[in-house]
Design a protein that fits this description.
alpha+beta, 7 helices, 5-stranded mixed β-barrel, elongated
């Protein structure tokens, strides 16, 4: 598990917590070019206390305070600006999440490395889920910093972070993914899968956009045969169009169409639980119809 993916997972957690958690304060997210990170005072703290402080920061949605508690290598792999941008791109996920320590198991310190076995309690909306995990910390300049792995197990169990694919998505002869259909989707738990793979046809709406999380989005006016795939929210808020998203991992092989194109789209049919509308997300395959 790379440190880069760890911090990307952290950003997903922060975004989810910030979207609906906290005290309801609607202060805008900091600009990526804002002042250097605020720090939680971890000087002199034992490894377990560094973990507790960092989780408190995460649950408050404060990436500026949590970020310095990670190791130099983790911070080298993902800059603070990148972490802030990811946070901005994910804040609309609409899921309430908090992470607390339910139980502390064996703690081992060997030189400048510490490992702590933990049971985390993940609260996702109204559901509480215990997850066994381990925190690895390294001592840098006299202070303990969280290194690789922590929170990745918990996020994977919850479906809040999907690992990036190692290469192009593998598709079968029908254009459906042979692996996890949600691979590469940010916060996939917010999407309720209605059908893991189907194909729709329609005309591209004039609203093609590059979202802050990197997804290409647009509406699709469906053919008469596919009208069953939209719901009342699509009709009220999206001019009766089905929402389509192409995730960054697929964009090399699935380029964005043009407004007015008649296309065929293959991918999972889902409901966005945060906003209520139906989507094809992610679009595995898009073909222009002559």
């Amino acid at each position: 598990m790379t440190a880069r993916r760890l911090l990307l997972a952290l950003c997903a957690t922060l975004a989810l917590a910030a979207a609906c958690g906290g005290d309801g304060n609607d202060n805008p997210t900091q600009s990526p070019t804002a002042a250097p990170a605020r720090t939680s005072d971890t000087a002199g703290l034992e490894p377990i206390d560094v973990v507790r402080v960092t989780l408190d920061d995460i649950n408050r949605g404060d990436i500026d305070a949590a970020y310095p508690n990670f190791s130099a290598q983790a911070r080298k792999d993902v800059s603070l600006d990148e972490a802030r941008r990811l946070l901005q791109g994910l804040q609309a996920s609409g899921t309430k999440l908090s992470v607390t320590i339910a139980q502390v198991g064996q703690q081992t310190i060997t030189g400048d490395t510490a490992e702590i076995e933990l049971t985390l309690e993940i609260e996702l909306n109204t559901t509480k889920i215990p997850v066994d995990d381990a925190a690895i910390l390294v001592r840098e300049e006299g202070q303990w910093k969280i290194a690789d792995h922590f929170l990745q197990t918990a996020l994977a169990v919850l479906g809040l972070a999907s690992p990036a694919p190692l290469g192009p998505r593998a598709l079968d002869d029908k254009g459906c993914a042979t692996g996890d259909p949600m691979e590469g989707v940010y916060a996939p738990k917010r999407l309720q899968i209605l059908d893991p793979c189907l194909t729709v046809t329609g005309t591209v709406r004039d609203d093609i956009n590059k979202a802050e999380d990197g997804d290409i989005t647009f509406g699709l006016y469906l053919s008469e045969a596919d009208q069953r795939l939209i719901n009342d929210v699509n009709r009220a808020n999206y001019d009766s169009a089905l929402h389509i998203e192409i995730v960054p991992e697929d964009q090399r092989l699935v380029p964005a169409p043009k407004a007015g194109d008649k296309i065929r789209v293959t991918g999972p049919w889902v409901t966005d639980l945060a906003h209520g509308h139906n989507e094809i997300h992610p679009a595995f395959k898009i073909e222009k119809i002559d």
